[in-house]
Design brief:
alpha+beta, five-stranded mixed barrel, 30 strands, 19% helix, rod-shaped
Amino acid sequence: MASATTLAREAASFGAEEDFAALLDATLGDNTGFAGSVITGKVIRVDDDFAVVDVGLKSEGRVPLKEFAPQGAKPDVKPGDVIELFVERYEDRDGSIVLSREKARREEAWTNLEKSFTAQQRVNGVIFGRVKGGFTVDLGGAVAFLPGSQVDIRPVRDVTPLMGSPQPFQILKMDRARGNIVVSRRAVLEETRAEQRAELVQGLKEGMVLDGVVKNITDYGAFVDLGGVDGLLHVTDIAWRRINHPSEALTIGQQVKVQVIRFNPETQRISLGMKQLMADPWENVATKYPVGGKFSGRVTNITDYGAFVELEPGVEGLVHVSEMSWTKKNVHPGKIVATSQEVDVVILDVDGPKRRISLGLKQAVGNPWDVFAEQNPPGAVIEGEIRNITEFGLFIGLGPDLDGMVHMSDLSWDEPGEVAMQAYKKGDMVKAKVLDVDVEKERISLGIKQLQADPAAEVLDRIRKGEVVTCIVTKVEANGIEVKVDDVLTGFIRRAELARDRQDQRPERFAVGEKVDAKVTAVDRAGRRLALTIKGKEVEEERQAMQEYGSSDSGASLGDILGAAIRRRNQGGDE
């Protein structure tokens, strides 16, 4: 098509200016509706901000240089270039044609995109901006909308790596009248993923080692994307060591190497493992941890029945609650140890096939009962605080974990236990003597009265069963009388033993402070008490008198015989 300048020269050659209009009409015909169409032009020159283009019309058109290159880049245009342009207006107020390179590219892009949309073909584009609900994509001049849900198969937190690089997209919807295009990158990935899945599943076998990406994390494990197909990595198969939650060892998006443990071709369920690619720490565990050995470990978990201690990554043992403390009974393990605490333990038992190790915490320290027994043999004097008072005695603290008991019978030589206990209160510091240490039963018997010599010891050593002793009545009761021997030893004469004759067996016959002679029938050295009888003494005296002074058969009365015996005894006493 000839330019307006060429037409003017041709009109001048004809020598008639009025023929110019006729020549223009002959050249253009009636088709002067170029506005809104795409035409071809040739760059004549490049000014500061515009490129002047000859499009074969009445006048040249001008195109802004910024339309020839992305923002910030140098325009790629020079005189002589033939380009396609969009005619916005046929002429403006200056008589120029308003042209647009960008709109021409857009029109061309729309035409190509419509063909791809109709044929359901993928198109290439570049994500270049962010808008509400998604992103903008440049499809070779046409701008499309990419919803956030269509970016990837799984949620993408950071789309920055995808921006600025060519990506394949599927056109979901087009409306040229409104200028709307909706595209999806996810549809392309799903199609590719389906192809990869079919290929991967076909050749999948148990024992294969694959690379994958952690796709999702749950309480019971993690789902790993193997490139088109997902597999479950159970929490127990992540590592040999104890893992309470998969997030302790994995993060979403992490690249991992896994082994196929189980594969069901029918359901296409894949079970994966990571620890299977590592050395099993339980191999030769009995050699590494012999019974009786002492090792250090870290508390990994605490339960109602004990605590688990990690000896090395992947090897844990259980300290049962009964093996945690020598002295703390019926205490929750959480009050003895804490999670992540470093502790010393002793190996009690190892079962390699069952992957079980029994540990002892208390065995790693000396048995305090053995230590106390060694340091404080019977007879040793200790001092401690009264921690508790019960109805049967006192409990004295012998250290942070040990208590010894003073039975109320070991509080005083003279006072009854109930009375002696009234002199003590909780928190008092007292001294006591060690009486016995029973390590097996974990008992320590103490005595306070044993700090002093037993005032009745000498009398107990001297008095023998059958001996007649002089007593002082200290108490008169309905069933007998209580007496004192040598002011230190207590004795009791039962009602039936108060006299030979039944009518005289009355306790009220005796008065407190009265002296009586009685025969010893039993000696209770532990209880420091004597069992006495007056009746037995009288019977014994009668028997001896009968042997010495005759019998009633010889004509002498019992009164005469006893009277003679008493007189003789008195005369012997006078001599």
